[in-house]
Design a protein that fits this description.
Blueprint (H helix, E strand, L loop, with lengths): L4 H4 L5 H9 L2 E5 L5 H11 L3 E5 L24 H12 L4 E5 L8 H5 L4 E4 L4 H14 L3 E7 L2 E7 L9 H4 L14 H20 L8 E6 L4 E6 L14
Parallel strand pairs: 1-2, 1-4, 2-3, 4-5
Antiparallel strand pairs: 5-6, 6-7, 7-8
Helix pairs in contact: 3-4, 3-8
């Protein structure tokens, strides 16, 4: 009650809303720049079970934006280090760190039973895999992406007939960019918005970004939406596929 007091003061939250978070299971796919603020804010909010999936190890160049880690974590597994650090932040919740590569062979096993999934990835091959899983199993997905001083967020709810999936907006795999510039604070803002979308969905408070592709331009400090609709010919969710 003391730890969560300030958020429980929000209208319509109270004990009922906090118990919804406590009884929820969330998977964060990717423990890098976006996964850091997402998992920190979800743990701080009291999500009962958080599974973090990442197969990478921390490098020095990651630390300008991957704020869940410290210098001592360099060359260690991101997923396992994230688990350790989140347990220090909130020991009252269950944190699972999986140092694995998610693929067609294990996606169903790894994500079974999740209430919502957060896309904090840096490649579209895996994003499409997660998007397809969510559509098959009717699990909401919060997509996030980052480049330089721009962030992007989309909430996908397969149970909502008006919600387009990721493939509706990106029908083809965008060209690979290699190493690109990133401002850490822009990543933090984007990840915090993703976490907020998760919390709103689980508590039932507020409106999610369904059909509204949010673009965060921190260079000009502008926020704008692109309205997107279901593609009936979408190969993943389309009614005419």
């Amino acid at each position: 009650m003391t730890r969560y007091n300030r958020q429980m003061m929000l209208q319509n939250w109270e004990t009922k809303g906090q118990l919804k978070l406590k009884n929820s299971k969330v998977a964060v796919i990717g423990a890098g720049g976006l996964g850091s603020p997402v998992s920190l804010y979800l743990a701080a909010a009291g999500i009962g079970s958080i599974t973090i999936i990442d197969n990478d190890v921390l490098e020095l160049s990651n630390l300008n934006r991957q704020v869940i880690y410290s210098t001592e974590d360099i060359n260690k597994s991101k997923a396992l280090s994230a688990k350790t650090n989140l347990e220090k932040l909130n020991p009252a919740i269950n944190i699972v760190g999986l140092n694995v590569t998610i693929d067609n062979g294990n996606v169903d096993e790894l994500l079974k039973g999740m209430d919502i999934i957060v896309d904090c990835l840096d490649n579209f091959e895996t994003r499409y895999l997660i998007n397809s899983f969510c559509e098959r199993n009717k699990v909401p997905l919060v997509h996030g992406a980052i480049h330089a001083m721009e962030g992007r967020v989309l909430f996908i709810d397969p149970k909502n007939k008006d919600s387009p999936c990721l493939s509706c907006f990106y029908p083809e795999n965008p060209p690979k960019m290699g190493k690109f510039p990133v401002l850490g604070s822009t990543v933090g803002i984007t990840g915090a918005i993703q976490a907020t979308e998760v919390i709103k969905y689980l508590t039932g408070i507020g409106t999610n970004l369904i059909g509204k592709f949010l673009i965060i331009d921190t260079k000009m400090m502008e926020f704008r939406h692109i309205t997107i609709r279901n593609n009936p010919k979408c190969k993943v969710c389309g009614s005419e596929k």
